[in-house]
Write a structure and sequence with these properties.
Elements lengths: L1 E5 L6 H10 L5 E4 L10 H10 L8 H8 L7 H13 L2 H8 L5 E3 L4 E3 L26 E3 L7 E4 L4 E4 L13 E7 L4 E7 L3 H10 L4 H5 L6
Parallel strand pairs: 1-2, 4-5, 5-7
Antiparallel strand pairs: 1-8, 3-4, 6-7, 8-9
Helix pairs in contact: 3-4, 3-5
């Protein structure tokens, strides 16, 4: 079974479209959260994920929009959450509010979380991956750090596909991964997209210009 894995779309419609265009035929697609936040297309990105019936978990930006708790965020993050709060339709908000913190999918072989199995808001960078993160699943998928990486152990795979909409590993290209559940292998993938168009849209939406500027450097 071939599985496309995405995370941290962060309302970047242009990057998400580039990933979907680059994505080869797969049997399933999963998402490790943070569909909204930062960038100016929260509703469009929710619709793109929802229309494809992608199993998704709740990221911290998703939760901030759903519960109105952006007060703990920095200026850029708070602005993105407040913008999403203004833009979402009732149906889009209902979808966001219904997202779980974790879910197990694909015949219980793949577990999705956002940050860490024990804490959805804990940053778990690739150098912190270990087989101890795995439970009964074959593959643990997480996001949150915006840093792409994976490790294959005897016990299974720990995978962060990286961020579609705001990479922070100094590679500005949109990140995602292909997971082969038959061979238990991972292919980390990157795809270029029109960052300039996103930067322009950020400014047009009245969002902090740093949100768009940082995309050029992948940080």
């Amino acid at each position: 079974m071939q599985v496309g894995v995405i995370s941290d779309v962060h309302a970047n419609r242009v990057a998400l479209a580039a990933v979907f265009e680059d994505l080869p035929p797969v049997d399933a697609l999963v998402c490790a959260g943070d569909v909204v936040g930062y960038n100016p297309w929260p509703g469009e990105c929710i619709d793109a994920v929802r229309e494809r019936a992608v199993p998704t978990v709740m990221g911290n930006h998703d939760r901030a929009v759903a519960t109105g708790t952006a007060f703990a965020f920095n200026g850029m993050a708070r602005a993105g959450v407040e913008y999403a709060d203004e833009q979402l339709s009732p149906a889009q908000r209902d979808w966001l509010e219904a997202l779980p913190d974790e879910r197990v999918v694909l015949d219980d072989r793949v577990k999705l979380v956002h940050g860490h199995p024990d804490d959805p808001d804990r940053y778990t960078y690739p150098d912190l991956f270990s087989p101890d993160l795995l439970g009964g699943e074959d593959v643990l998928v997480l996001g949150h750090t915006h840093v792409q990486g994976h490790e294959i152990y005897d016990e299974g795979i720990v995978l962060n596909p990286g961020s579609v909409g705001q990479p922070r590993d100094r590679d500005p290209r949109a990140a995602y991964a292909l997971l082969d559940l038959d061979d238990m292998t991972v292919e980390e993938r990157r795809v270029a997209y029109d960052v300039e168009a996103v930067e322009h849209a950020v400014r047009e939406a009245g969002l902090p210009p740093e949100i768009g500027a940082r995309l050029y450097k992948g940080r």
